[in-house]
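Quick one before lunch.
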Amino acid sequence: SSPDSDGMTPELEKAGLLNKTKIAEGGRKLRKNWNPSWVVLVGNSLMFFKDPKTQNSDGWKPGNSCPESSVDLRGAQLQWANELSSKKNVFKLRTVTGNEFLLQSDTDSVITEWYSTIQKVIYRLDKE
Ligand code: I3S
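Model of the (1S,3S,4S)-1,3,4-triphospho-MYO-inositol complex:
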């Protein structure tokens, strides 16, 4: 049987490496601290894991390891935010709770795919 034969396991939409910094927590501005992050979009959640390259030699098993943080995309807002950084290809994700993240990739196709995939999930949740 398939791993999701009970239909209860949310679908993996996308996973990959992006640069990430949190810039606000509950509406309060934070100091930027860019770091590579392994980003996983499953169901309604965007999860951030440590960069696989910084994992130890036991290997990288995101399925078995705990995310550093997780974002509920319901009611979230997504917008391009190149004015908020000297880096190229930056977008901002704001949660209903007022947490704000910047996500970035030097590769145009990578960032546009992430943007449209996250936007699709946000739209789907808005319609529910
Ligand atoms: O928006 P800012 O303050 O120019 O962001 C830069 C700083 O956070 C900087 O760290 P310091 O706190 O040591 O100044 C970072 O190294 C830069 O990456 C930040 O700017 P960019 O343009 O990379 O988002």
